[in-house]
Amino acid sequence: MARIVDWETFFASAAGQTAARWEHGAYARFAAAKTGDRALQIGLAAHLNPFEKSPVAHRIVLTEEVEAVPADDLRLQVLGLPWQIPLADDCCDIVALPHAFDMHPDRIDAVLAETYRVLAPNGLLVTTFFNSIGSWKLREVLLRSSHILPERSATIPMSAVKGAILHAGFKLEGGNFGVYAVDRSPHPARGGAEAVSRLPSWIDKAGDRWWPTLSNVVLLSARKLAGGMTLVGKVNFSTAKPAARAPAAVSNRKEGL
User: Fold this and answer.
1) What is the 3-state secondary structure (H, E, C) of the chain?
2) What is the per-residue pLDDT for 256?
3) Among 30, 43, 164, 165, whose Cα sits 20 to 30 Å from the Cα of 109?
4) pLDDT at 42 over 60
5) What's the CA gap between 170 and 119, in Å, rounded?
6) Homologous superfamily of the 7-230 domain (CATH)
7) Is 112 left (phi over 0), alpha (psi -120 to 50) or beta?
8) C-alpha to C-alpha distance for 236 and 214, rounded to whole angstroms
9) Residue range 6-35: average pLDDT?
C-alpha cells in the first residue's frame, strides 16, 4: 500500500527540507531588495519564511488556520482564504505565494486576482511551485508506488502558471529553477546551529547548466504595473506661470470675428 504524503510529512522528509532550504534562499534574493511598508505571505507559515531577510518590518502571513511558528517570528498571522484576502486595496509592497498554486489549482485565477488587488502599484509578486516535468513528478508517474510530493498537490505546467499571471495583469520579470537532488545530510532541529548542507551537488550544478527547466521547484517573479502618467524630472507647480499669449494670435482672432 502506497504511503500517503501530506504537506507536514513532505516538509519533514529530506526532499521537503531540501526544497525549503532552496526556497528560503531564492525568496531572500528577491525580498531583500524590495523595500516598502508591508509584506504579505499566503500559506505555509510553519514551513517557509520568505521575508526572513526582508527590510520590510510589517510582515503578515495569511493562514487558513493558526500555525505554530517560532516565538521570535516577526510575522503576524491573519486568518483568511487566499481568494478572499481580508486586506485593503493597494496595501502590500510584496506578496509571496509559496506553493499556493499547488494547493489550490482550481482557484489560481481567483488567488491572482486578490493578489493583484492588495498589491500596491509597482508591487512585487514572488511565487514558488512544483515543476510538472521535474524528476520528482516524473518518478511518481513512472513508479506509481513512489510518492515524494504531497498527496494533495497539483503540479501545473509552468506555461500555464505564466499564462495565468499575465492574464491577471502582472508583468513577468524573471525567475529561478532549483532543486535537482535531495540533500540527505543531517540537519539540526529548528532553533539549533546552522546546518551544513552538501548542496549544490554535482547533479544540481549540471542541472542548472544543462537542463534547468527540469528542476523540481520553480520560482517566478512578476510586478503589478499601474497605468497612467509618469512625471519625469522636477516641476515646481506652485511657481509655474502660464505662458503669455502671442499678440498675433489675438489679432487673428479679432480679424475673424
Assistant:
1) CCCCCCHHHHHHCHHHHHHHHHHHHHHHHHHCCCCCCEEEEECCCCCCCCCCCCCCCEEEEEECCCCCCCCCCCEEEEECECCECCCCCCCEEEEEEECHHHHCHHHHHHHHHHHHHHEEEEEEEEEEEECCCCHHHHHHHHCCCCCCCCCCCCCCCHHHHHHHHHHCCEEEEEEEEECCCCCCCCCCCCCCCCCCCCCCCHHHHHHHHHCHHHCCEEEEEEEECCCCCCCCCCCCCCCCCCCCCCHHHHHHHHHCC
2) 47
3) 30
4) yes
5) 11
6) Vaccinia Virus protein VP39 (3.40.50.150)
7) alpha
8) 54
9) 90
Q: What is the pLDDT of residue 166?
A: 96
Q: Any idea where the domains of the chain sit in the sequence?
A: 7-230
